[in-house]
Write a structure and sequence with these properties.
Elements (H helix, E strand, L loop, with lengths): L2 H22 E2 L2 E2 L4 H18 L1
Antiparallel strand pairs: 1-2
Amino acid sequence: MNNLLQIREKINKAAKLKQAQILATKNGEVTPYRRSVFQERVKAAQKDLEKLD
């Protein structure tokens, strides 16, 4: 693989990581990640999708 492509991929990966970190913050503080909260959000989203069908 070309070195320029590898560099571009690394830059894109770093940019995506930075964006994810920004989205994960709330008022400058990192929101805690709890698996139970995540699972509740997934279930709620699934219920909403079922209602649309």
